[in-house]
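Q: what sequence does this backbone want?
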């Protein structure tokens, strides 16, 4: 089967630099990374550090842990589509960049209908996406396409996610990792041949931004002689920059609403009118044509004994994240032994584009770089001695419109291939049955120790008996989930950290937090919104730190620290209210047995919220906690800023040092 992924288009998304390691600490027995002492390979050492996050922050947290494993004991990802960047770019774009008809259906007789919404002669959408969060679920998948971004129920979504906001996140991704749609040796962001004047400066705001957008949309760049294997194989039609915009229905484009320069992608202008009409295709050239046959080089249909219903995989080499995570056929990767169509990224021979004729399978170098930073790839190559040390918790909603569960499944499959005992849980009731014997799940009294729920555990939340589109009032299983799910998810991340840091102090204290001896008697003694001078960013950078309730009572005590990264469109201060979740279980217990023993539900620990918000001139809303500029760098250094924060916290607060 011949399949060419089109990874340019990411639907609405919600909501580091690579580790540079010095050989050892001054004592000569512990490694040093990013200026901090860590742990060598092997299960004996503990670092007393963890990092987790939600959505953008969740995938970033896992990447940070897996790129610098010596610095951490645990990683947590809550509902992140970025936990496997391969599956994210491919599977999501199958829908979000789909629906275009082949040119032979449009040309030359249907040019008059190109800008008619959903005309049956010119539009081939929607695209049905059948991959389910839960295997063997009775629920159907969903459908969407380029002109109809799938949004699902509004309840539990966590935001409106209009088209322009979605496209801004696409741009943020390209700013951080490099443009996944087109490779340009001279510019990691813009397609080749597009002048920098076609880009709206990120520092512009208000009317100045509107005017610049209007000017760009009125004067597109027209590129002649550009080829695309599917939509412009002879290069006879111009390829243009284009604009998009919000229609009256959320996620749906409306002809004529084109006031937002897309910047990172191109369209084929079949009628040569200088704009992208409804049915004209958006093209993406992320990879040479992929023949995903598996390492035997033979597709299922050509394998001996093939029968589509009784024996669909004779060689038993088809990839499935749960049943066969080591399979190489249909794994959306090029593996050794698979055929190569060495025609370059545009898929057309003798055009001389990137990768053509070099004798190997090529990815857009920006995509290749992105994959090296993907948590799934990182878990596959993590040293055994470091994997032995780490603990992972992940969750994802089974009706998350961003496919976070389907994407997290792929990451979990890679982990299962190495750690077969990693646990899977379906909805809160199943987790409650294991963690505290049943009833409504309560993260304060849940036993989330490795002995009880597994060293690595993954929860797909949402009632599996409720299919997409049905639970629209409560939003269970959506990206953020119902109000109760949202609270339980954050609290579980904190409870997991508490359960996994060794040697924890769980002494209970009477009274409220303001009775615990803070210097001013105010909540700000324990919940501090602060700033530090970031050399990496060249500006003052905010953060929030939550100190444990006995921090002033016991000035000799030291604590583990859990860093938490927010999602896109948020900031560190947005999570200050989490202090209510973090402090009370550290002071006392709702469990009668623990209360009688004078114990708190969670151990004492420092919680730090890092800030990943973009400032004007950097990006729109999503920093990805990454040094920007793709593989060549040179952009804003949000990745290094996180390690600056870690060094600041360890210098200014009483954190525990790693213990060999």
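A:
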């Amino acid at each position: 089967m011949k399949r060419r992924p089109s990874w340019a288009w990411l639907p609405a998304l919600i909501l580091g630099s690579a580790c540079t390691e010095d050989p050892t600490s001054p004592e000569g027995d512990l490694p040093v990374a990013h200026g901090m002492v860590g742990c060598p390979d092997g299960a004996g050492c503990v670092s007393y550090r963890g990092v987790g996050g939600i959505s953008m922050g969740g995938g970033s947290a896992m990447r940070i842990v897996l790129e610098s494993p010596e610095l951490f004991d645990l990683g947590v990802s809550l509902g992140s589509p970025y936990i496997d960047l391969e599956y994210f770019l491919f599977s999501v774009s199958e829908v979000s960049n789909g629906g275009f008809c082949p040119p032979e259906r449009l040309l030359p007789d249907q040019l008059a209908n190109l800008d008619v919404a959903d005309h049956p002669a010119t539009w081939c959408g929607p695209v049905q996406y059948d991959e389910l969060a839960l295997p063997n679920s009775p629920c159907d998948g969903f459908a969407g396409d380029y002109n109809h971004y799938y949004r699902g129920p509004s309840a539990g979504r966590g935001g409106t996610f209009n088209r322009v906001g979605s496209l801004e996140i696409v741009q943020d991704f390209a700013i951080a990792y490099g443009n996944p749609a087109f490779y340009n040796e001279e510019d990691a962001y813009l397609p080749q041949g597009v002048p920098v004047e076609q880009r709206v400066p990120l520092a512009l705001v208000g009317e100045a931004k509107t005017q610049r957008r209007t000017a760009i949309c009125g004067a597109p760049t027209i590129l002649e002689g550009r080829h695309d294997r599917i939509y412009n194989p002879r290069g006879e039609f111009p390829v243009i920059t284009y604009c998009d915009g919000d229609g009256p229905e959320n996620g749906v484009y409306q002809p004529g609403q084109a006031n937002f320069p897309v910047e990172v992608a191109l369209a084929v202008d079949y009628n040569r009118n200088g704009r992208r009409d409804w049915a004209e295709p958006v093209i993406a050239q992320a990879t040479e044509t992929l023949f995903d046959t598996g390492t035997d080089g033979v597709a299922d249909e050509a394998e001996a004994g093939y029968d589509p219903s009784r024996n669909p995989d004779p060689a038993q080499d088809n990839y499935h994240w749960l049943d066969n995570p080591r399979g190489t056929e249909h794994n959306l990767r090029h593996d050794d032994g698979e055929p190569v169509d060495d025609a370059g990224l545009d898929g057309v021979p003798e055009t001389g584009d990137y990768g053509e004729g070099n004798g190997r399978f090529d990815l857009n170098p920006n995509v290749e770089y992105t994959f090296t930073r993907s948590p799934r790839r990182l878990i596959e190559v993590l040293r055994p001695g470091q994997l032995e040390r780490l603990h992972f918790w992940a969750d994802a909603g089974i009706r998350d419109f961003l496919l976070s569960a389907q994407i997290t499944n792929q990451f979990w499959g890679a982990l299962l291939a190495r750690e077969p005992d990693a646990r899977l849980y379906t909805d809160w009731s199943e987790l409650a049955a294991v963690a505290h014997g049943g009833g409504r799940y309560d993260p304060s009294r849940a036993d989330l120790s490795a002995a009880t729920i597994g060293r690595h555990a993954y929860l797909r939340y949402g009632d599996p008996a409720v299919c997409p589109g049905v639970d629209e009032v409560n939003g269970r299983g959506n990206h953020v989930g119902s109000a109760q799910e949202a609270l339980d998810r954050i609290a579980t991340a904190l409870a997991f950290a508490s359960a996994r840091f060794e040697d924890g102090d769980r002494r209970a204290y009477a009274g409220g937090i303001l009775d615990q001896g803070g210097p001013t008697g105010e909540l700000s003694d324990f919940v501090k919104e602060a700033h530090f001078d970031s050399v990496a960013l060249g500006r003052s950078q905010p953060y929030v730190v939550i100190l444990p309730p006995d921090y002033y009572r016991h000035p000799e005590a030291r604590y583990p620290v859990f860093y938490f990264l927010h999602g896109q469109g948020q900031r560190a201060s947005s999570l200050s209210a989490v202090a209510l979740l973090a402090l009370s279980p550290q002071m006392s217990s709702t469990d009668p047995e623990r209360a009688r023993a004078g114990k708190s539900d969670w151990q004492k620990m420092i919680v730090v919220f890092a800030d990943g918000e973009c400032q004007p001139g950097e990006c729109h809303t999503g920093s990805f906690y990454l040094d920007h500029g793709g593989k060549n760098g040179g952009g804003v250094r949000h990745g290094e800023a996180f390690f600056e924060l870690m060094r600041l916290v360890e210098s200014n607060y009483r954190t525990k040092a790693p213990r060999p």
